Amino acid sequence: MAGHARGGRRSEILGTFTRHVAERGYDGANFSDVAAELGMSKGTIVHHFGTKDRMLAEVQERYMRTRLAEANALFARLPGAAERIAALVHAGVRYSADEPATTVAFQREVVRLVDRPGMESARALRDAYRDLVVGVLRDGEADGTFVPGDARLRSLQMFGSLHWMWTWFDPDGRLEPGAVAAEFALTLLRGLGVAETAARDAADPAGAVAAAVDGVLALRLTEPEPTSA
Question: Whereabouts does the entry annotate DNA binding, in residue ranges (predicted)?
Fold first, then answer.
């Protein structure tokens, strides 16, 4: 029971820190405010996490492990390249609505994954996700689903449209997440050369791809964390 309590407290600390990063940015988040909100000492936070950099790294790592697990589950359900790309777009928009704090915390601080010390594991997970997307784009080109092009550049276009959503998207605003995802997916698939009917079917917020995304996200999957030697 004691171990479970400690684990729950640790998760509570990380969750509060994540929300502060989402609301204020990494530079505006600090141990003092987290400790005050949770009614604990800063020493308790240091005991669990060590440094603020380490906390951010864990936020990023947990986020990317979950996204990788979901992507692999979607690929198992959707064999076609167009459907896989549409599914990742639908999932990407859903994250902003379903997990706003963790998603915004990741998106607004993703630049810290470029070369910041201590972010090696999170960076590797992000690169693995990117490689999945690039692989689908290349597969689609190879089987004639997509017109020829630079898969890496296309992946950046896709990520760019999703990763900046935190600056403008309001899940309770004019457009529902499904409608935003459908528009994004349709525009992307058209640009990749997918036939109009197939692109609309894949992008449809009430279609089979969106249903697959609903099913996978409902499972609340995650990749196992590495164990210490």
Answer: 30-49
Do 33 and 62 lie in one domain? The reply is no
DSSP structure string for 113-156: GTT-TT-HHHHHHHHHHHHHHHHHHHHHHHTTSS-S--HHHHHH
Prediction pTM value:
0.87
First to last CA, the chain: 25
The answer to whether 74 touches 48, Cβ cutoff 8 Å, is no
Give the H/E segment covering residue 55.
helix 52-77
147 and 199, same domain (yes or no): yes
Q: Which residues lie below 8 Å from residue 133, measured CB to CB, with a gap of 6+?
A: 85, 88, 155, 158, 159
Number of compact structural domains in the chain: 2
The helix-helix angle for 208-219 and 52-77 (nearest 10°) equals: 130
pLDDT in tens, 8-45: 888 899 999 999 999 999 999 999 999 999 999 999 99
